[in-house]
Request: fold
Amino acid sequence: MVGDLQELSYQESFHGAFSAANAAVRLITQRMESSPAWNTAYSNRDAPRHTRIHQPAGPRETKQVPPQPPVPANQVSTSSAPSHQPPGRRRPRPAHLLTTTMAAAMSVSAVVPPAAAVALARTLLCVPATARAPREMAAEVAAAAALGADLAELRLDRLAGFAPSRDLPALLAKPRTLPALVTYRPTWEGGEYEGEDEPRFEALQLAMELGAEYVDIELKVADKFIKFMSGKKPETCKLIVSSHNYENTPSAEELGKLLAQIQATGADIVKIATTATEIVDVSRMFQILVHCQEKQVPIIGLVMNDRGFISRVLCPKFGGYLTFGSLEKGKESAPAQPTVADLINVYNIRQIGPDTKVFGIIGKPVGHSKSPILHNEAFRSVGLNAVYVPFLVDDLAKFLHTYSSPDFAGFSCTIPHKEDAVRCCDEVDPIARDIGAVNTIIRKPNGNLVGYNTDYVGAISAIEDGIRATQSTRSTTSPLAGRLFVVIGAGGAGKALAYGAKEKGARVVIANRTFARAQELGNLIGGPALTLAELENYHPEEGMILANTTAIGMHPNTNDTPLSKQALKSYAVVFDAVYTPKETRLLREAAECGATVVSGLEMFIRQAEGQFEHFTGMPAPDSLMRDIVLTKT
Reply:
């Protein structure tokens, strides 16, 4: 529905959690000022920049993972969380793990999770610490632990004036709140380190000696680094060999060759990060994850930017070793990285496994839609093993063909894909076909896609109830019957309201910025068409109803309105599908003119409840969903 363009930011949803994290950072930083370990480490700030300190690491301490809460019977049972103490180094797999033939055989049209027989360790949540000063970086690690992270990535290249011999003993001092993944990324691989390799290698080896659980080295210099170590890597440290592609996501065959190349270095963990130019690129990364899971090869496989967002949330379903979540908005270490709070609280990532069903909202744009917050909490309330994610889609038909696995079970559909969805579905509900727009797609067990429209019921019922609550009406007929009903907009939501109003006996008029579009819809429903300019002087009678189905007035353009205040004086009822802000300029000025106003929030809630029932076959938890929309978005 058009309301999904309102896209309230997730930042507000967990503002409290972020505030707590910031408070923790400040408090921990203050306490460190008096810490003996920090005072000792920083007592000689003029020490040579790359002087090596061979400090005994001391006995290993295994982080005790608390018992996990019971998982509902209908959810996949995750294996017990692994200890953060890395095991002994895995014997390198043969370089031909993924052959060209195997890669070519991996169909992008059938992305499926690992077989149930393959035991999955819990995907770890890693928070990158990106502060510019060591004290603040250590405080970020502590804050990440408080938010529920499993480990922290220490981005040494982000530190200003970094001196390994001074800073690393303090950053890796025990006891630590989280295990450490140490990264010292050079500029040629997307980081900030601009120096030579040898000083960087020395710092990474020192981190190993000081007890870092993981160290990341780039594939381009992996052989050189391993030779530099001369077999001195502690058994307690895992070596991650990584490759980052900031341009695109290679073919399945090329990814297979890259995987084999990384394994040939003797890596304990493979890391491949690519960039999505379209959302179907992510399917190739999922296939690599599945293959590695079946071969028991630990892999971190992620796809960057907004079109690759789903790779960060769904990696537990396909066997990824870890995923990254920032401490808060603004502290990301890679494009479109979610916060760890969102991963845990919005997407319920701890419960995602091979059997988890995937739902989501298809749109462009879609990144800030409140639908994931609403549906994921509703799923959780009924014990459904499912996750709801945003799908930033350019080509709807290509997306639906690529993600054709039964596990991709249903979709909400918003601008600009509602009309295309009618053509992409194998079956379309008669009402949705008459409207000419689909906002809900369900995948049946046989793979067929069925399209529905819940927008028209959500919007029309909201307007009817708004009128009944403020105006005297006949209880046996619709309060829309016989009234002039002006719809602004001729897209999917406009079609839904025009159809619904006509079905209720209203006389419908279509107004649109582009007259040809207004005329096309007007011809379909048997009503006149106007331009927005003509609508300014259109007042054939008093007591008209106005329904805005466009994005005019949506955040951040909150000063915009589709109709002047003077023109609003002819309307008795005004509905706005825009709900960010909750009171738009259109609704505020309509109320000042004495009209009954109906918020787009009601349409959003009601159409979402209809979608939930299609997704689950269960009644929607109305009071819960209303509470979520009003308090968490």
Q: What stands out?
A: The first strand starts at residue 124 and ends at 129. The radius of gyration is 28 Å.
